[in-house]
Write a structure and sequence with these properties.
There is one protein chain. By secondary structure, the protein is mostly helical. The chain has two domains: 66 residues; 28 residues. Helix 1 runs antiparallel to helix 2.
Amino acid sequence: MRPMHEEQYLLTCLAEECGEVAQRCTKALRFGINEIQPGQDATNYARLWGELCDLQAVAEMLSEKMGYGHTVREEIEAKKERVKKFMMYSRDLGTLR
């Protein structure tokens, strides 16, 4: 097996974290955002938040490794606006309350 470069390793970790975020989202949709899974101490929301923090941490590590240590606030705000735009469109279509 060929050893990975650090970027490949971080990309693998990032993909894994994305999968974990997706899993937490589906659990919250299936069982409720405030449900606490048997044998767990935290709600689905708290567990989702933890996964999002893990994702952010790996994303920052990759960004630093690639030399893109700049702030992403502007990009985040732009994404929020796009999401709001499509939420309004969904409301207009009647698929969102």
